[in-house]
Amino acid sequence: MEYGHKYEQLSVEPGYKAPDFRLNDEDGRPVSLYGFLGDRSVVLVFIRAVDDADTGRQLDYLKDSYQRILYHCGDVLVVSWGSVAFNKSLVEKHKLPFHILSDEDCAVLKKYEIYNPYDKLLGPNVFIMNCAGLIMFMYNGKNPDDIVTMADIVAVLHDIAESGGTEVYGGVANRNI
């Protein structure tokens, strides 16, 4: 989406509403971010569409921590620029309990301002949204082996749950940075 004026651009950072999107999951079913949110927080993870040791470690790390994330009223949604078939192979290979969505044209990577024209995505990127869709945390990996700590993710989810799930005052998001 192109904007006519720089002031019309959306900010993709903590304290602002996350851009919605609709992508196909590993089984070809459409999933939208706001449809997925429901009454829980979402840990939105962008990964490279490469079946290598770094991507495998990131997916296994999320899988091993998935019950902790659920316990803290969160869920995981992963996005890669891989095809539906490629993402299905990752889900099956790693026995993942969460979806990997296909962003083959990188439209969502661009919308979230993490697209790199040379590598598409330098490292994993993590956004945590509360149930209102506000970005409460973001992590931009600088290389393929960067992994945000689970302690950071759990701390954010805990803070969101303690605040009742949303931090909106008079229609304006509490800037949590």
UniProtKB/TrEMBL annotation:
<dbReference type="Pfam" id="PF00578">
    <property type="entry name" value="AhpC-TSA"/>
</dbReference>
<feature type="domain" description="Alkyl hydroperoxide reductase subunit C/ Thiol specific antioxidant">
    <location>
        <begin position="15"/>
        <end position="135"/>
    </location>
</feature>
<protein>
    <submittedName>
        <fullName>Peroxiredoxin</fullName>
    </submittedName>
</protein>
<dbReference type="GO" id="GO:0016209">
    <property type="term" value="F:antioxidant activity"/>
</dbReference>
<dbReference type="GO" id="GO:0016491">
    <property type="term" value="F:oxidoreductase activity"/>
</dbReference>
<dbReference type="InterPro" id="IPR036249">
    <property type="entry name" value="Thioredoxin-like_sf"/>
</dbReference>
<dbReference type="InterPro" id="IPR000866">
    <property type="entry name" value="AhpC/TSA"/>
</dbReference>
